[in-house]
Amino acid sequence: PLYGKRRLLVFNNKGMGPCRQGQYVETHKLLFHRDTGPLRDQAGEDEVEDLLRFMVGLEDQGFDVGLGRTVLLRCMQGAVLQGVCHQLLFEAAACCPDTDALARLRGEYRALTA
């Protein structure tokens, strides 16, 4: 899915306190910088830095990252739709009598979500 992409945006929520939510973005930044050694050898430092950008929604600012209301609405709709699709998949998978039926279901699920 990333073939030909030039930038990856990662959205993180960040809480105000010393909770896990406040630590995720910092952990993601550390992991990215730790694991990009080979990329830094092949490309310049600036190219690697431009590859990934973090959008951080701060709790004390209403998690606002500067997106318009229609974009936020589409994000919410996408999250709900993904949850509905996952629930359909889980319930249907539980009814599969064998691995062949499960394989067919996976193919149908991929077609549905595409």
Q: What is Rg?
A: 19 Å
Structural class by helix and strand composition = alpha+beta
- The number of helical runs is 5
Instruction: Find the count of extended strands (DSSP E, 2+ residues).
Output: 2
How much helicity do the residues have?
55-70%
Main sheet?
2 strands, parallel
Spans of at least 5 consecutive residues with low confidence: none
User: How much of the polypeptide forms β-strand, as a percent range?
Assistant: 5-15%
Which descriptor suits the 3D outline?
extended
- Order of the strands making up the biggest sheet: 1-2
Multimeric organization = single chain
What is the H-and-E element order? EHHHEHH
- The average pLDDT score comes to 81
Query: Between the first and last Cα atoms, what is the distance in angstroms?
Result: 12 Å
